[in-house]
Every structure is written in C-alpha cells, then in structure tokens.
Amino acid sequence: MNQTQYAASSPSLSVHELSQYQYCPRAGLLAHEALFDEAGEDWPKIRLSYLPKYNLAEIERWISVVTIVLVGVIVATGVALGWVLLATLLAKPGAVGFGWWVFGSAFLASLGVLYLIVMLVRRRREALGTKPREPEFTSEEPVSIHWWELRAAGYQPRSPPKFDDEELLNLHGKPWVVLVRGDHWIPVLRMRGDSETIHTNHILRLAAYRYLIEVNTHYETPYGLVLLPNSLKAKAVPASALGQAELKTVIADFRQLIDSRRAPEPPTRQSLCDKCFFGLPHRYVMNRSETYSEGQPLPPLTVKVAGKYWHSKCGDRFRWHTPPTRKFADLAEPS
Ligand code: SF4
Predict the structure, then answer these.
(1) Which terminus of the chain has a smaller tally of CB atoms within 10 A, N or C?
(2) Where is each DUF83 domain found (predicted)?
(3) Ligand 1 centroid to residue 205 C-alpha, Å
(4) How far apart are CA 189 and CA 231, in angstroms?
C-alpha cells in the first residue's frame, strides 16, 4: 500500500490528536473519538478581560481607548464630589450619601483604569525598546528568544487558516498563530501550566505544523516557536529537529492503534495522568454521558468518593474506575 492509498483509506487526524497520542495513547484515542474537531486556538479577540500583549498596534490602540475612559471616570469623580458639597450645603443627607457612593465608585474605577494604563505603557516600552535578534542554532537543541526580539526583526503575527493535507498524511491542524516575514512562516505554540520544559509532543506538533505549512503554502519554516507559559519568552526549535520521519512514524503507529480497536495500556508514570484532562474527575449526572466512542455515548463508570459519585472520560472509555490521578485522591481528603 503506498502512502496515498493509506491516507485515503484512513480517517483524517488532527495535530491535536497526534500530540495527545504522543502524550499517552489512551489520550490520543479519546481526542480522536471526541465529537469536536480541532478548531485551533484563536488569536485573542478584544474583550474586557483581555489586555493585548503580543501586538504593538493593539497595545497602542488600547492605550488611547483606556486614556479616554480614564478622563471619563476622573470627570465623574469630580462631578460626584461637587454633588456631595452641594448636597451638604443644602443639608440633604440622602443626596450626600448617594454622592459619596458615586464618588467612591468612580475613584476606585479611576485607580483600576490607571493601573491598566501603567501596564499597557510598560508593555509598549518593552516592545519598542527591544533590539532585533534571531535564533542562531548550532545543534537541534531549542534556543531562547523573546517575542519582541522577533517582532523587532520584522516578523508579523498572523492568524493562520486551518491547514489540510488530504493527499499524503491526511492530517489537519491550525497553529495558534504564525509569524510571517517574507517567505518564512513560523508556527507558534503557547505552553500551558507552569513547566518550561519542551516535551516531545511540542516538537511533534511543530513538526506537523511545519509539514502542513510547507505543503499548503509553499513557504518555508526554518524553525518553530514555543511561547513559555504566561510569558513572552520563547524557545525556538530548529527545522532540523522538526523532520518528517518521526512525524510519519507516529502517524502510522496511531492509525494502526485506531484500526486495531485495542485498548492501549495506561502510562507507567502517574504524573502523566495527574496532568491529563481526560483523567479529571467529573460529578456524575444521571442519564448524561460526556464520553463518546465511535459516535456513541458511553455510560459513565462511577466511583463513590466522599459520599458523591464521580467519573472521568478516561475511566468511562477504558472501563477503569479511576485513573490514578492526584485529583481523585484529593476528593477523598477534605481540605
Ligand atoms: S488519564 Fe492517564 S491513562 Fe487516561 S488518557 Fe490521561 S494520561 Fe492516559
């Protein structure tokens, strides 16, 4: 069977499923059988809880908007103070109380808005004050780089389309963002949690995105980027570490597992289950399933802990009562 025939006769895999498989084969199957597809992670949209930090134009726009808001709340504070003075002169205690309430609220709001401006100005200063630098690789090891160093070197962030490759590997996926400069498209991942260690599943994801970018756009990916958790610091992984051989082997192994319909063994390291989304305890709700296999809902496999019934997606799918996660153990220990 050649590669094209193999791809055509096999289900399309997402990069997310592949990296879950690399993490734990059970997690790969659960991700593959879930009833949602990889939508990718969107470039942040403007919302109240979001302050821009990756895009200088956005930071500057926010500084303008927040400055106007600050002027508004300062005016409101002054008006409220005038109201209090007037109401005091007119001996209207109810109006005085209301005036103080408005004054206090507006004063607190102005402090909050001032804090936002300080944060944004610091981000703007960091963005403008960083010198351009590009990663220099002497081996396949990741090297440290800062987001603003790359931006200063001329890379522009862009929200990429969802890439598809139905011809050869039958793979699809969408990196969080790509940094674009000339013929270079750099896929960017963001790490979650608090560990700054680059694991094999990060490398695999970058290799898959590199493959998808080069097949779909014909641009080059000389390296991939992993942003460290809650940080603008990053690790650049050279293209030499993002080869296709390992990617193809993992895809072939994963497809073989899917076709075999066998249940793989859980990992021997409990720490993997501890950090795994599929091992999280969920409260049992009667007649409701949250786990699907081959399009069919699976009955939850419950366990009684501290007087309540719980289940997990991994437990439901692989029929073991509780994956040995710390979170299940914590339920039994009242805090
Ligand atoms: S809970 Fe453990 S066995 Fe289950 S998918 Fe996660 S890592 Fe794998």
Answers:
(1) C
(2) 194-277
(3) 19
(4) 12
Residue to mutate (ligand 1; options 272, 274, 301; most atoms within 8 A of CB): 272
Q: Is the CB of 224 under 6 A from ligand 1?
A: no
Closest of 208, 175, 166 to residue 19, by C-alpha: 208
**How deeply is 29 buried, as exposed, middle or buried, from its count of CB atoms within 10 A (0-12, 13-18, 19+)?**
buried
Assigned token pair, 107: 């004063």
Which tokens is 8 given?
Answer: 């055509």
Instruction: Give dist(CA 205, CA 246) in Å, integer.
Output: 11
The amino acid at 57: A
Q: Which run of H or of E encompasses 143?
A: strand 143-146
Cα 209 to Cα 5, 65, 80, 81, 160, distances in angstroms: 22, 36, 56, 58, 11
Q: Are strands 184-190 and 177-181 parallel, antiparallel or unpaired?
A: antiparallel
280 lines ligand 1 (CB under 6 A): no
Instruction: Please write down the HEC assignment for all residues of 152-218.
Output: HCCCEEECCCCEEECCCCCEEECCCEEEEECCEEEEEEECCCCCCCCCHHHHHHHHHHHHHHHHHHC
The answer to whether 324 and 332 are in contact (CB under 8 A) is: no
Burial of 194 (0-12, 13-18, 19+ CB in 10 A): exposed
Q: How far is CA 111 from CA 36, 72, 74, 108, 114, in A?
A: 43, 12, 10, 5, 5
Q: What is the pLDDT along the chain (335 residues), one digit of tens a residue?
A: 444 444 545 788 999 999 999 999 999 999 998 865 544 444 444 444 467 888 888 899 999 999 999 999 999 999 999 999 999 999 888 899 999 999 999 999 999 999 999 999 999 999 999 999 999 999 999 999 999 999 999 999 988 888 988 878 899 999 999 999 999 999 999 998 888 899 998 999 999 999 999 999 989 999 999 999 988 999 999 999 998 899 999 999 999 999 998 999 998 888 888 888 888 888 888 877 778 777 778 888 888 887 888 888 898 899 876 665 677 777 766 54
